[in-house]
Amino acid sequence: LIAMGQAEHSVVTTCAYCGVGCSFRAEMKGEEVVRMVPNKDGHANHGHSCVKGRFAIGYATHSDRITKPMIRARITDPWREVSWDEAIAYAASEFKRIQAKYGRDAIGGITSSRCTNEETYLVQKLVRAGFGNNNVDTCARVCHSPTGYGLKQTLGESAGTQNFDSVMQADVIMVIGANPTDGHPVFGSQMKRRLREGARLIVADPRRIDLVRTPHVKAEHHLKLRPGTNVALINALAHVIVTEGLVQEDFVRERCDMESFDKWRNFVADARHSPESTESITGVPAATMRAAARLYATGGNAAIYYGLGVTEHSQGSTMVMGIANLAMATGNVGREGVGVNPLRGQNNVQGSCDMGSFPHEFPGYRHVSDQSTRDLLQQAWGVNLLDEPGLRIPNMFEAALDGEFMGLYIEGEDIAQSDPNTQHVTAALTAMECIVVQDLFLNESAKFAHVFLPGSSFMEKDGTFTNAERRISRVRKVMKPKSGYADWEITQLLANAMGYPMNYAHPGEIMDEIARLTPTFQNVSYRRIDELGSIQWPCNDEHPLGTPTMHVDAFVRGKGRFMVTEYVPTQEKVNARFPLILTTGRILSQYNVGAQTRRTDNVHWHAEDRLEIHAADAEARGIVDGDWVGVASRAGETVLRSRITDRVQPGVVYTTFHFPESGANVITTDNSDWATNCPEYKVTAVEVTRVSQP
Ligand code: SF4
């Protein structure tokens, strides 16, 4: 996949996979990429990379790439290659027809964390200004939307508090529902370096991830909780901190809202939240919970890193707030080595949220009901903007099934594979009259599309990505777009065809507009990023060089606000028919739905998803290692091969979700976070049976 030869020049760009956002040098010979070399000056990776980023060129140049626009009147028709003019005109005329027939709100758009900031900004602008509604959403809906909600409620900003290098100042590291060595490998290595230097480790995860026990690193406490009991666990840790006098009273008095603190303290102090009362819920021994809480509160600088094992639950937002409560109560916010750090799964999930791709928020997390922001944007964009939130992705599906939502523009997201309860999703997609998919490959969603617009890989365009530490880095064009257009140009073509003019000559102009209209991006420009190498927002007159650590002297919202976090058991119950809990995660060599990594050399390391099952559960079902097994839930059924392992506890099974054949989302359910509708991917009641090879 990597052409060998002598490089003549190189271009510095940013990896398009995970939220670490490693900087790479694409070494070039003429217009050909010779090799991808991690950039030693990269602020997020300091010259390191993982097996995903190194081989990413494989998917960008893969023969499966679609390079010509295509249309079809019905999804049962064969695709017909057409010119760009015809494809764009057809998409626009269909969207206009649908709006004329069903109303202004009958169409919408979905953007993705695979898009650059500039592309995401344009998609939400197209929807708000061109479609005339707020029906825009992003794939963050299904991963970190609870982070945005929970951190805004408590700390005042929908983002992590630290830079990655801050971990080197941590004395205690608590990893909750994340698997950094697989999901965020370069940061995982940095964390391991700090642990080898002597930092102490607490892991809260139903599964024994590598960090729990790996050469020279051992977790002092592994809180091996039952899936779905996060909030009971965090309340138990808080109970110990409050009742054993471990609260940093000075910090709380000076920095936090005392009324909310008193309410929270009284709540968690109640005996029903004690480790002894909750151990039957979490499955974690009370003594382990007590010891972990004491270590977190008294071990020096304590930093929490968390992932989708926190957010993808029916109480995802509650748990994010519970984590923020714990950090505030112990004074672990606002300096190096501490903080609340969401490990964002995708390269630009932070950026896609920052750019206003949620139906309720404009760029910079300003609510659509905020009059002054609307005035600013209306003047800049020359349109009237709605003050009511639009439809979230699950609402779009419901409205489609009700015959009220009939047209969808999807850029870079494969909702048919990545969203839960596949049967429900495909029924909704089938009900729509025009779906426009803009992507590199004919993905699962394209099966339901009427227009396919061939998109551009990160190698073929300019722009920026924002990683998990709020770091904005440049994406630089290495090769010409294979389809003739970069994604931002395609969105612009569609906007013009819809009658809303967009005339940007370069993505740098889009960033200039973002900076003009978004206070946290006020001083961001391509020139400034080139000068500094990368910038962590907020970057404005107050923080002209960016902000590595947030909430230093005061919380963004002023006083930190404690939130009461009542534990509410999930609706997803085990019973005699579905006695096991399925939970999901990632593996090092593959990335999310695998559309990219399956088309690289990475398939040599991981070529299929397997179901991990404990030996006791396997034996009870007559399953031996490598057997094909049927996995049935209330939503559906799929078939996988088994792997018998003690990484999972009895009663819990686990799979990755990188291959469409594994059908992980055929079995996940419609349950979702109460505040954000983030799906409850991490808890599905299932039964597993031995089957013959499919
Ligand atoms: Fe870095 Fe993540 Fe890309 Fe690996 S996948 S090279 S850790 S950004």
From TrEMBL:
<dbReference type="GO" id="GO:0051539">
    <property type="term" value="F:4 iron, 4 sulfur cluster binding"/>
</dbReference>
<dbReference type="GO" id="GO:0008863">
    <property type="term" value="F:formate dehydrogenase (NAD+) activity"/>
</dbReference>
<dbReference type="GO" id="GO:0015942">
    <property type="term" value="P:formate metabolic process"/>
</dbReference>
<dbReference type="GO" id="GO:0022904">
    <property type="term" value="P:respiratory electron transport chain"/>
</dbReference>
<keyword id="KW-0408">Iron</keyword>
<keyword id="KW-0560">Oxidoreductase</keyword>
<dbReference type="GO" id="GO:0043546">
    <property type="term" value="F:molybdopterin cofactor binding"/>
</dbReference>
<keyword id="KW-0479">Metal-binding</keyword>
<keyword id="KW-0411">Iron-sulfur</keyword>
<keyword id="KW-0004">4Fe-4S</keyword>
<feature type="domain" description="4Fe-4S Mo/W bis-MGD-type">
    <location>
        <begin position="8"/>
        <end position="64"/>
    </location>
</feature>
<keyword id="KW-0001">2Fe-2S</keyword>
<comment type="similarity">
    <text>Belongs to the complex I 75 kDa subunit family.</text>
</comment>
<dbReference type="GO" id="GO:0016020">
    <property type="term" value="C:membrane"/>
</dbReference>
<dbReference type="GO" id="GO:0051537">
    <property type="term" value="F:2 iron, 2 sulfur cluster binding"/>
</dbReference>
<protein>
    <submittedName>
        <fullName>Formate dehydrogenase, alpha subunit</fullName>
    </submittedName>
</protein>
<dbReference type="GO" id="GO:1990204">
    <property type="term" value="C:oxidoreductase complex"/>
</dbReference>
<keyword id="KW-0677">Repeat</keyword>
<dbReference type="GO" id="GO:0003954">
    <property type="term" value="F:NADH dehydrogenase activity"/>
</dbReference>
<comment type="similarity">
    <text>In the C-terminal section; belongs to the prokaryotic molybdopterin-containing oxidoreductase family.</text>
</comment>
<dbReference type="GO" id="GO:0046872">
    <property type="term" value="F:metal ion binding"/>
</dbReference>
